[in-house]
Amino acid sequence: MRAEPSASRGPWRDGPVIFDPAPGVLGRLDAADTGCAVWCRDLDPALQRWLAGLVFPMPRQGRWTLPVDAPIAATLRQRLSVWLLGAAPLSAHFVRDIAQILQMARDCLGSEALSVRLDVVSNDGCRLFHADRLRARWICTYRGPGTQWLPDAAVDYAGIAQGTNDHVRDWTAVRQLQAGWVAALRGDQWPGAVRPGLLHRSPPASPAQPRIVLAVDAA
């Protein structure tokens, strides 16, 4: 498995994925040869320390819909306060960071509500490489190993959706995003798409080292 270069590097491309330390890259999903755009950034150190100290009664999942006209920050404060019950007081850094991602997703999707998922992942429940059956999804791993993905040459697309990972031709070609990076992934329902959505999966996790993952898509 190959990790991606650090956020200190300038813009670069790896097959269908474009990387950039500037957030504007998340608005470039319309490019015909792009299956995913990644904002390579370092999380605020104060937010990193707060996230590292979180201890949750397991399991911990957050699911909610953000209506088109709902104020992002106020809605987030309410939802995150419930999500954090028994774990920690609400962090203003966390609210601001997630609010920024939600605003970017809203700007891309236009007049659509957003479906928000904030999970503490402690198992191997998403072990299969797959493409999402939706228009687009924004993913940020706040703690733990980041999302894994596959370049086209490592995939047998005829074998997708068979309930196994047999469609992976080359396991040494697996890439992995870094914690804190924000990825905007095309799904299979992206309008006018000429290629399948990017194949990706969650890396293995355990109760001893749970991941914290945000996923946002059209409701």
Tell me what you see in this structure.
This protein has 219 residues and is of the alpha+beta class. The chain has a single domain, classed as Jelly Rolls (Sandwich). It contains 3 helices and 12 strands. It has helices at residues 45-52, 72-83, 92-109; strands spanning 2-3, 12-14, 17-20, 36-39, 60-66, 114-121, 136-143, 148-149, 175-176, 182-186, 200-201, 211-218. The strands form 2 sheets. It has an 8-stranded mixed beta sheet with strand order 2-3-4-10-7-12-6-5, with helices on one face. Helix 2 crosses helix 3 (92-109). The two termini are 33 Å apart. The model has no long low-confidence stretch (mean pLDDT 86).
Give a summary of the structure in a few sentences.
With 219 residues, the protein is an alpha+beta fold.
Task: Lay out the secondary structure.
Layout: E1 2-3, E2 12-14, E3 17-20, E4 36-39, H1 45-52, E5 60-66, H2 72-83, H3 92-109, E6 114-121, E7 136-143, E8 148-149, E9 175-176, E10 182-186, E11 200-201, E12 211-218
Helix pairs in contact: 2-3
- Helicity level: 10-25%
Strand content: 25-35%
**Spans of 5+ residues with little confidence (pLDDT < 50)?**
none
* Helix and strand pattern: EEEEHEHHEEEEEEE
Structural class: alpha+beta
List how many beta strands DSSP finds.
12
**Highest-level CATH class:** Mainly Beta
How large is the count of helical segments?
Answer: 3
- How are the strands of the largest sheet arranged? 2-3-4-10-7-12-6-5
Attribute tags:
Jelly Rolls; 219 residues; 3 helices; alpha+beta; single chain; 12 strands; four-stranded mixed sheet; 25% strand
